[in-house]
Amino acid sequence: MSEPRKCVSCNVEMQFAGEASFRTGGTSGSWNFLFGKWAELGEDTLPLRIYVCPKCGKIELYANEQTRQSLLHDSVVDRL
Questions:
Q1: Is 33 inside any structural domain?
Q2: What is the Cα–Cα distance from 1 to 4, expressed in whole angstroms?
Q3: Cβ(26)–Cβ(42) under 8 Å?
Q4: In terms of C-beta density within 10 A (0-12 exposed, 13-18 middle, 19 or more buried), how is residue 33 classed?
Q5: Residue range 26-52, pLDDT digits in tens
Q6: Is 12's pLDDT higher than 50?
Q7: What domain count does the chain have?
Q8: Is a pLDDT exceeding 70 seen at residue 63?
Q9: Which domain holds residue 57?
């Protein structure tokens, strides 16, 4: 469920535009050309909620619960 968000620039309620998955990790460029699918090892997707201001067009991305838990868990593991 989308939560109401206010644009920090316009103070107008932003519109929920859905969720999108962003690719993280892996490699790109010539590594992808040389190694093909092997270059994508370690790649993951990060689902984020997208909000758009109808007045100025500002876009904000927010982590859903699954993404928050994953990011928080990863940051704790990295500190160990």
A1: yes
A2: 10
A3: yes
A4: exposed
A5: 555 565 555 655 555 556 778 899 999
A6: yes
A7: 1
A8: yes
A9: 15-79
